[in-house]
TrEMBL record:
Entry keyword Glycosyltransferase: no
Protein name in UniProt: Methyltransferase domain protein
Source organism: Rubellimicrobium thermophilum DSM 16684
Record Pfam families: Methyltransf_23
Lineage: Bacteria, Pseudomonadati, Pseudomonadota, Alphaproteobacteria, Rhodobacterales
Gene Ontology BP, a term: methylation
Single GO term (MF): methyltransferase activity
Length: 249
């Protein structure tokens, strides 16, 4: 008990120092935020903190800016689309809502008053109701095989999931261990107290095994330095096949 309490106190102190450092840290080069148009120095965010992570005006992080760049270039949202935004980020939600017929939010927590209070692994929502699902940094928290199957079920044929999640491209296989359950152990092994795994490249197999066709939008230069992205961070685009308009593959 005594040792554990002492450890907790030391971690608390380290966390406080990191938080103070992160609050004061800035990038050194001006970036342009595609989410809000802000141009200037970004601020640090994360554990450990990353320079240039957060737009000081709208709060966007690297992944939000990556997704917004892809949205602006590919125009994947249209006026007839029905969208489900899981664990909705305020940095992206309003921009998507403005483009589509129906925009709904879903979360396992009531904190942000979602339209649907649900578990993405078992939503209880009807089949084929959505044309787009946005699901960032959720899979690493849940039973991903069930979540992918559920999103496949919720999509109409031809529908698309926008997915991001932490991934180590140098690993062939995902690291997970169901025996590791204590928050501090999960933080050490998986990078965050409520993460269940860290993906390797086989994330792609899991997405395809759920029935999706997969394409990718990785952060490349000059976008990385211009918009403050993480080199190689990838937006995964998982499409549910549409048998009525199958192109020759
Ligand atoms: Zn911004």
């Amino acid at each position: 008990m005594g040792v554990r309490a002492g450890k907790a106190r030391r971690w608390g102190t380290v966390d406080a120092v990191i938080a103070r450092f992160a609050a004061a840290a800035r990038g050194r080069v001006p970036r342009l935020c595609p989410c809000c148009g802000h141009e200037g120095l970004f601020t640090a965010f994360g554990d450990p903190p990353r320079y240039d992570a957060r737009c000081p005006r709208c709060g966007s992080l690297e992944r939000h800016r990556l997704i917004r760049l892809w949205m602006d270039r590919e125009r994947p949202f249209g006026p007839s689309h029905r969208v489900l935004h899981v664990a909705p980020e305020p940095q992206l939600g309003p921009a998507i809502r403005a483009l589509v017929a129906r925009y709904e939010t879903a979360d396992i927590s009531p904190r942000r008053a979602p339209d649907h209070l649900l578990d993405i692994c078992d939503t209880g929502l009807p089949d084929g109701q959505y044309d787009r699902i946005v699901c960032n940094h959720v899979l690493e928290h849940v039973d991903d095989i069930r979540a992918l199957a559920e999103m496949f079920r919720l999509l109409a044929p031809g529908g698309l999931v926008l997915l991001t999640t932490p991934i180590i491209e140098g690993w062939a296989t995902t690291y997970e261990n169901s025996a590791i359950t204590a928050p501090e152990e999960r933080r050490l092994h998986f990078g965050q107290a409520d993460h269940l795994r860290i993906y390797g490249r086989d994330l792609r197999d899991r997405i395809r095994q759920a029935g999706f066709r997969l394409s990718e939008f990785p952060a490349m230069e000059p976008d990385v330095h211009r918009h403050g992205l993480i080199r190689g961070e990838t937006l995964f685009l998982a499409r549910k096949p549409d048998p009525s308009s199958e192109e020759a593959a």
